Amino acid sequence: MIKLVATDMDGTFLDGAGQFDMERLKKLLHSYQEKGIYFAVASGRGLLSLEKHFADVKDEIIFIAENGSLVRFHGEDLYEATMPRDFYLLTFEKLKTSPYFDEKKMLLTGKEACYVLDTVDETYLMFSHHYNENIKKVASLEDITDEIFKFTTNFTEETVDAGEAWVNEHVPGVKAMTTGFESIDIVLDHVDKGVAIVELAKKLNLDMDQVMAFGDNLNDLHMMQVVGHPVAPENARPEILELAETIIGHHKDQSVIAYMEEL
């Protein structure tokens, strides 16, 4: 019997316009509360962005944010993994040696805000505002006093796979994963959505066979591997479709919330 349902956002829960039906979600959450089912949003987006999207119901759902670096429920952090200051400064220096990396297309997400260098590419900054809240410019990463969860950086469509592979091969202590949109997230090497959902299940005293997850991209891979019931929309990457217990309709048709309503 399913007791926890977790879903990725972009390409999964959100429709073709990057939106969802709040009134429909409210009805679903009311039904889930009666059935004793928890609902979690598992995203590469930052907590600030997720809380804004789900402002009307943020006290009723669980947030797995920053690609698994933070799990929050009822205002309490159930799990978190932040980068020590010396670590993210050293990681930045290492990234600058990559032939694929452009520091003008880089963003760091922290507990209080998100950060870009004041030399940031303005097109990248506009793009970032769609997925992040409270973005601040800094002259140097050394000016940041916040606790940092992850780096996000963009490549071209042709170089994103090579850029991800370079980071995983050459930067110690981190894990890079494709999130879509020619972008990768760089988190601590022991962090991802799968790790976070296992920790969450422990906190809720659930077996993994009681957990269902929806995902479409490579940053959902481990989550889909560890849950008892992985479900993918038909638009998911082949690696995700191969793992799925069930394949449903396209995310553009709100197939995920429709499937959730049948539980």
UniProtKB/TrEMBL annotation:
SUPFAM superfamilies: HAD-like. It is an enzyme of class 3 (hydrolase). CDD domains: HAD_YbiV-Like. Keywords: Hydrolase. It holds the Pfam family Hydrolase_3. Its EC number is 3.1.3.-. GO terms for molecular function: hydrolase activity. InterPro entries: Cof (IPR000150), HAD-like_sf (IPR036412), HAD-SF_hydro_IIB (IPR006379), HAD_sf (IPR023214). This is HAD family hydrolase. It comes from Streptococcus taonis.
